[in-house]
Amino acid sequence: MTSPMAARGRDVRRRLTAAAVELIAEKGWSAVSTRMLAERAGVAPGLVHYHFPSLRALLTEAAIGAMREAVAGIEPASDLVDGLLGPLDAYTGRDPVSLVFVETYLAATRDEQVRSAISALVAEFQGKVAGWLADRGVVAPEATAAVLMATIDGLMVHRALNPMARTDLRPVLRRLVEGGAVCGS
Amino acid sequence: MTSPMAARGRDVRRRLTAAAVELIAEKGWSAVSTRMLAERAGVAPGLVHYHFPSLRALLTEAAIGAMREAVAGIEPASDLVDGLLGPLDAYTGRDPVSLVFVETYLAATRDEQVRSAISALVAEFQGKVAGWLADRGVVAPEATAAVLMATIDGLMVHRALNPMARTDLRPVLRRLVEGGAVCGS
DNA sequence: ATGCGCCTTGGACAACTGCCCAAGGCGCAT
DNA sequence: ATGCGCCTTGGGCAGTTGTCCAAGGCGCAT
C-alpha cells in the first residue's frame, strides 16, 4: 500500500506536529520557529517547508489536532462534575495540553482560519455537554454548558498561576449543574 | 519640582507603556518588538532601552499596570452577578484589556517575575470577592470566588471565539452564588 | 560661556527569522 | 543500469530581532 519512503515521510510529519505542540506550550505560539521545530523533531530545517506550506499551517494543524484529540477522550459519567473534572485533574495549567488550548484561543484572535476551526470544535463539544445536561433535567442546558466550559478553561489558566485543590472546588461547581435541577424540583 | 526635560521623559515612559498594552493585545506578547513599540509611541527606537532595562521589563510593567487598573474599578454591587458581569459586558474578548489579561496569564507561565506579580494581583482581588460573598452568606466563599473569577476569565476567552448573549448566561451564573445560600436556607 | 544632567537620535552589531532551492539519496519498476 | 518519484540535506536570501553606543540637544546653574 505504501512505500517505505512514503512511510518515513508520514513519520516526519507526525514528529513535526508533535514537536509543534510541545513548543507552542513551551515558548508560545508566535515564538516557535522553523529551526526550533526541526531540531526538536530531529529533522533537517528544510523539511518543515517541504511537508507544510508554511509555519502557520503547521502550527494550526498541530494545535487543532491536539485539541480534537484531548476533547475526544471525554465521555459522560454518571456524575457530570466528576466526569469533567477528572480530565481537569490531569491538566494542571502548565502541561502541554492546557497551554496549547489557551495559546490557540489567542491565536484564533489573530487568524481567522484558526478561529473558525476552534469555534467549531468548541461548539461541537459544548453541544454534547448540553445534551448530557438536558438528559439530567438541568434547566437551560445550552447556557449551562457554555458557562461550564468557560469555567473549566478559566480554572486551567488560573491553576497555572496559583495551584488550588480541586476537591474544594467540586461542591461549588456542582451548584452549576444541580442548582437548576435539584433546587427547583 | 520637575524640570521640563524630566517631564518629557516621564511622558515618553507613559506613551511606551500605553503602546505596549495596545501591541500585546494586537500582536501577542512575544510578537511585540522594540521598533514596533517606538513607532506606535512616536519616539525613536533607542529610547526604549534608555527608559527600560529590557523589552521584557517594559512589557511586564505595562501589562501589570493595565491589569491593576482594570481590576481597581470593580466595586461590590447589591447584585454581585450584575456587578461582576457589568465590566464583563465591556470586555468582549477582543478588546485590549481582555487580551492583555490572557496574554499575561500565558506570559506568567514562562516568566517567574510576571507569575508572582499576577498571582498576587489575582489573589488580592479574589480575596475581596470572597469577602463580598461571605457578607451575603454564600457558603464556601473562598472556593466560590475562585470559581467565579475563573468563569469570568473563561467567558472572556470563549466570547472571543463565539460571541454569546450575556443575558442568557446570567441566571446560570447566579446559581453559583445563590445555590449555596438560597437553596439551602 | 562653560559645564553638568538628563533626554534623544540614528545607526551598528551579531543573531535570528520564514521561506526557497539546487543538489543528492533512496526504493522500485523497467 | 537507467529513469522516475518522493524524501532529504544544507546553505542562501532578504528582512527582522534585542541590545548597545557614540554623538548631539536641551534646560539650567555657574
Automatic annotation (TrEMBL), chains A, B:
All copies of domain HTH tetR-type, residue ranges: 10-70
InterPro entries: Homeodomain-like_sf (IPR009057), HTH-type_TetR-like_transc_reg (IPR050109), HTH_TetR (IPR001647), Tet_transcr_reg_TetR-rel_C_sf (IPR036271), TetR_C_31 (IPR041583)
Entry keyword annotation includes Cell membrane: no
Organism of this sequence: Kibdelosporangium persicum
A molecular function GO annotation: DNA binding
Domain of life: Bacteria
Keywords: DNA-binding
DNA-binding region: 33-52
One Pfam family cited in the UniProt record for this chain: TetR_N
Protein name: DNA-binding transcriptional regulator YbjK
PANTHER family: HTH-TYPE TRANSCRIPTIONAL REGULATOR PKSA (PTHR30055:SF226), HTH-TYPE TRANSCRIPTIONAL REGULATOR RUTR (PTHR30055)
